[in-house]
Amino acid sequence: MIRIILADDEPIIIKGLRKLIDWKAFGMEIAGQAYDGNELMQRIEELEPDIVISDISMPFRSGIDIIKEIKQRNLPVKVIFISAYQEFSYARDAVAYGAIDYLVKPVVKQQLENVLEKTLSVISLHHEEEKRKGKLQLLERKTRIEELQDALIQMTDGNLSPQAKVYREVEAQLRGPLYSVSIIEIERLREESDRWNEKEKKLIEFAIGNVLQETITDAGIGFAFMKRDHHVIAASHDKPEDSILLAEDVKSKIETFLKLKVSVAVSRTVDGMPKLAEAYREAENTLQTKFFVGLNRVLSYIPPAQDQAFNQELYEQQWSIIRHMTSKTWTEVNDQLSKWLEMIRKETYGNRSLAISTSFSSMVFIFQELVKAGIQLSKQVMNKGELQSLLASYESFEEMSGAITDLFRQMHEEIGTDTGNKDKIVLAKVKQHIDEHFAEEITLESMASMVYMNPYYFSSFFKKHTKQNYKQYVTEVRMSHAAQLLARTDLMVYEVAEKVGYNNARHFSDMFKKQYGQLPNDYRQESKKNG
User: How far is CA 412 from each of CA 382, 390, 391, 405, rounded to the nearest angstrom?
Assistant: First the structure.
């Protein structure tokens, strides 16, 4: 409804104007009235009208004074003046100051209606112009933000020169002195993986973008943008701890307003915009740690630890599991599995794909060695494709570890209950003893005694199940361990020989060459070259 103020020092004029036309038919209402110039200005300030219809000659302030002040203060008020016949030239001057029109007393209904229609047209055009300007400003702002977002994508890739104009413009917005990058990932539980169609995904992306726009960009903290299907925040801070506080605020608002669970991975704060690419890589690595610590969290960057002895420790732990699977109780097996999984978790922390691939290759090695020992495993366990897909399907290391442990428990039960595995268990026990004591003197007679067989029967038993004689098998085990020591340590050849049960280094070298086609030192050099 268009709001009108009527002003005249003669009350009868105002009364006449009220009754002259059907104001509602014009979409108008009389919001107030005034009897002098000062009162009119006060009513304009209080009631914020769209139109003022006023006598041009008013006490205290004339119509010219009023319209000058309206123009000076840039108030969106349209003015129609009423004048006596002898004030015609005065009223005409008022039009030059911005009045819509003037009417000569006594006011004629048709003339008033014509002037009101003209005024409505001017108001409508003004609104359209304001709307057009608003849209243009919004578009310009949107385009500007998109340009800065594109620049930040390049900066976090390390592909934008500090000399570029847009780089300096981003720098002017992100004043520092410290900077951080955060990556937001929506939690998608496996049973909900198909919950959202493409339209819903776009709506969710838009909704999160709005939250970040208000929290980050509008607040002048930084910018939010999309990169590789993730929402990314580049922000500036005064103190290092501000980055975590900001991430917690963002996470809380997304959960409160959108009812979505998210993880927010935060880089360390860096002391210069050229380091934003480094911060982005840290945030990417940090996002992977949710696989180890759990979902729906703010994740802080932790530098990866390097353990050079890991491969050897993992190899030894794998063999410990193999031995326990064929000769120990489930409690003892479970203890070894826990040590093995914790070893993998610690070494691969922060790298989900490495944790999965390490677990997978380690399990394949264990399964293959169990099969070599004569243990019959199910086709499901031996299907590498299914096993790899299964491990990759878990959202956390804890969940994956539980599934792996359940799989080994099932295998352990099958090994123990299968009557056909009795000979295999005896053989596994023999192999376990050889693997633990290969550096000692382990004769065929001593092994036969350990499993309560006479040497002749044991020799036949061993060859039947392994397709090779006992002495040959012991030699292969010794040479295998020797190869590991040559490739992974700097021990002298005679020291390696002693560690695998040979007192004569020359004899050891001959046996090693027979097994691998190279002398020990040649094998070591070749391993280093390939490694």
Answer: 15, 20, 20, 10
**Six-digit token string for 253:** 């608002």
Residue 231 pairs with which residues in a beta bridge?
A: 184, 226
- The DSSP string of 23-44 is GGGGTEEEEEEESSHHHHHHHH
**What would the pLDDT profile of 211-269 be if each residue is shown by its tens digit?**
999 999 888 899 999 998 899 999 999 999 999 999 999 999 999 999 999 999 999 99
pTM for the model stands at 0.52
Residue type present at position 130:
E
CA angle 206, 208, 214 (to 5 degrees): 100
Contact 411, 325 (CB under 8 A): yes
d(CA 64, CA 510): 117
How would residue 381 be classed by pLDDT, with cut points 50, 70 and 90? confident
Nearest C-alpha neighbor of 100 from the set 114, 89, 110, 87: 114
List pLDDT tens digits, range 6-28: 999 999 999 999 999 999 988 89
Query: Cis bond leading into 177, ω under 30°?
Result: yes
Q: Which fold has domain 2-107?
A: Rossmann fold (3.40.50)
Distance CA 56, CA 83 (A): 6
Sheet of 101-104: strand order equals 28-34, 2-7, 51-55, 78-83, 101-104
Tokens of 514: 């027979």
The per-residue pLDDT for 353 is: 86
Q: Residue 316 — very low, low, confident or very high, per pLDDT cuts 50/70/90?
A: confident
CA 180 to chain centre: 14
SS3 (DSSP) at 336:
helix
Mean pLDDT of 126-133: 74
If you classify domain 149-300 with CATH, what class do you get?
Answer: alpha beta
Tokens at residue 115, please?
């002037």
From residue 502, give the alpha-carbon distance in Å to each of 247, 462, 468, 491, 525: 61, 23, 21, 15, 22
**Cα 279 from Cα 299, distance rounded (Å):** 14
DSSP state of 217: I
pLDDT-derived band at 135, boundaries 50, 70, 90: low
Backbone angles phi, psi at 103, to 5 degrees: -125, 140
Give, in order, the Cα–Cα distances in Å from 149 to each of 77, 104, 153, 167.
Answer: 40, 60, 6, 11
Which CATH number is 456-530's, of 1.10.10.60, 3.40.1160.10, 3.40.50.1000, 3.40.640.10? Answer: 1.10.10.60
